[in-house]
């Protein structure tokens, strides 16, 4: 009886320890492969051709706080990478703020993808600068409580702002600690605000408000194209969305193959490097991809991650179309 009790006690300890390791969060984040998703169900285009198969895919990563078991044994899951918190969330930035910034990146990438695809097809798209959009407010910074995510700075120190470069020029003579007068477009209203400044961590002589901004662009499309990626964030699906739009509007891009693509697009059609390419390469392989398109700068890392998948590096959207037509 004593031996049985001892064995049962040991088993209980093992079970409780195992549960604790899986339930208690660690001080690190874990990045894992995610399943590839077809783009066709996410893109809606008036008059698009019907498709019996879904052959162009986007691929993402899963990221979250690692539990103690994952922290101690990350290798139990294929493709896992452990990252310290500071590598995922800049100091003072919460998971919620990072997530919102990622969703903003996705929204912008969709507009850029539509622009690049339509221009490739000879359609006219008008893009104009409307100011500098606030995409992140650093907690504890002078701008906290003054500026909000989504604000578009249209004037700074009495000067009109149409781009990030305009904002930099307007603030060039401001010294750290001085206040700056701003006009922002907040929803349907224009609001005058005053923000303090502090020294930039990278340049103690440069004044910053503690925000991240991007060019606020206004797009006028000849077609009412809608993309709904749900809760997926980040800019790396731009290449896949643009390929799908060209495919749906008549040009046969995939030719019956399963194409998985990742890459951030610029307005000019450049394909920029992305993060998590190891996990995305694994996701592409697991999806049964015939071809995995990646940015040039990510090719070596993708090739190291998988060796049983045709991976093609591209630097522009036109190049992506060309290699798919030639292969």
How would you explain this protein's 3D organization?
The protein has 2 domains: 32-89 and 105-123 and 224-326, Ribosomal Protein S5, domain 2 (2-Layer Sandwich); 126-219, Roll (Pdz3 Domain). It is built from 9 helices and 20 strands. The protein has helices spanning 2-23, 68-72, 85-88, 95-120, 164-170, 238-248, 277-286, 299-305, 317-326; strands spanning 25-33, 37-38, 43-44, 56-58, 61-67, 81-84, 126-137, 152-156, 159-160, 180-186, 189-195, 198-199, 207-208, 211-220, 226-227, 259-261, 264-265, 271-272, 291-295, 311-314. Strands 7, 8, 9, 10, 11 and 14 form a 6-stranded antiparallel β-sheet that branches. Helix 7 (277-286) packs across helix 8 (299-305). The chain is globular.
Comma- or semicolon-separated keywords:
9 helices, globular, 2 domains, 327 residues, 5-stranded mixed beta sheet, 31% helix, 6-stranded antiparallel beta sheet, Pdz3 Domain, 20 strands, single chain, Ribosomal Protein S5, domain 2, alpha+beta
